[in-house]
Write a structure and sequence with these properties.
The protein is mainly α. It is built from four helices and no strands.
């Protein structure tokens, strides 16, 4: 991996960690979500500091161009994050439907 790509990974990782830390201090993000995003930032930092790991992963996946492996790892991480958020949204939707039913039952009983 080139020095420029390593520097970009490190800067991007630090930027993600700093922004999420800011949101945590301001209580603008839930802890569960923050852990997901902080792990993504740490992944970028690890790729920048230890480029041998991403090169090994690229060889393991059969990718011959290392920047493509970085993009693949990033895409996989973002897809994992989206899946995680989708699961949380689905759970909240179920809870909302349950609360709607309970409220309807209470309204009927109060009449």
């Amino acid at each position: 991996m080139s020095l420029r790509a390593r520097i970009i990974c490190i800067i991007l990782g630090l930027l993600i960690v700093m922004v999420i830390s800011f949101f945590i201090r301001r209580r603008r993000i839930y802890t569960v979500h923050a852990i997901t995003w902080l792990s993504l930032g740490m992944l970028f930092l690890i790729m920048g500091v230890f480029p041998v790991l991403i090169e090994y992963l690229a060889r393991l996946l059969g990718i011959y161009f290392v920047p493509t492996a970085i993009i693949a790892v990033t895409l996989g991480s973002l897809l994992g994050t989206v899946l995680h958020l989708t699961i949380i949204a689905s759970e909240q939707h179920k809870k909302i439907r349950s609360f709607e039913k309970e409220i309807s039952i209470l309204k009927i009983k109060n009449k």
